[in-house]
Amino acid sequence: MYYIAFHKYANQGFYKNEFEGLTFPKEQIGGQSTITGDEILRKVWQVEMGYSKWIDVAILFGMVILYRLIFLGVIKGKEKFKPMIKAFLSRPTKQCTNVEDPSSKHLHEAKM
């Protein structure tokens, strides 16, 4: 589900857009005095850095197109199969002829 959820690509694209190429002061004693945006992306946000933010945007647009095509297919399929299903469900059922209908017996007695 992680790879087909649009949130993954939206958040990663957003974080890459905001943090790539920036440098921030580090408030820890000792070591480096700054931390890069790429380090924040990798260590804090755990963003996949193997591709650019534009790939994330392209995947999002691809999802929009794919989901719209699936929705169109569902709608067109419903239009095509709904009359067939209604016809199947409304056709008379085959009943056994040996069983006497109790209501017809009462009608026959009432006529006499």
Short description:
This protein is mainly α and 112 residues long.
List the helices and strands and how they pair.
Blueprint: H1 6-19, E1 23-25, E2 34-36, H2 37-44, H3 53-90, H4 102-111
Antiparallel strand pairs: 1-2
Helix pairs in contact: 1-2, 1-3
Shape: rod-shaped
What is the SS-derived class? mainly alpha
Count of domains: 1
Radius of gyration: 33 Å
Count of β-strands: 2
Largest sheet: 2 strands, antiparallel
Give the proportion of residues in helices: 55-70%
Order of helices and strands: HEEHHH
Count of runs of 4 or more consecutive helical residues? 4
Our measurement of the CA-to-CA distance between the termini, rounded to an integer number of angstroms, reads 73 Å
Widest sheet: strand order? 1-2
Transmembrane segments: 54-75
Keywords: Membrane, Transmembrane, Transmembrane helix, Transport
Family: Belongs to the ABC transporter superfamily. ABCG family. Eye pigment precursor importer (TC 3.A.1.204) subfamily.
Organism: Forsythia ovata
Defining traits:
single chain; mainly alpha
Describe this structure in words.
This is ABC transporter G family member 15. The chain crosses the membrane at residues 54-75. Keywords: Membrane, Transmembrane, Transmembrane helix, Transport. Belongs to the ABC transporter superfamily. ABCG family. Eye pigment precursor importer (TC 3.A.1.204) subfamily. The protein has 112 residues and is mainly α. The chain has one domain (6-91). Helices cover 62% and strands 5% of the residues. It is built from four helices and two strands; from the N terminus they run αββααα. A two-stranded antiparallel sheet has the order 1-2. Helix 1 (6-19) runs antiparallel to helix 2 and helix 1 packs antiparallel against helix 3 (53-90). The longest helix is centred in the middle third of the chain and has 38 residues, at 53-90. It starts with 5 loop residues before the first helix and ends with a helix. The mean pLDDT is 87.
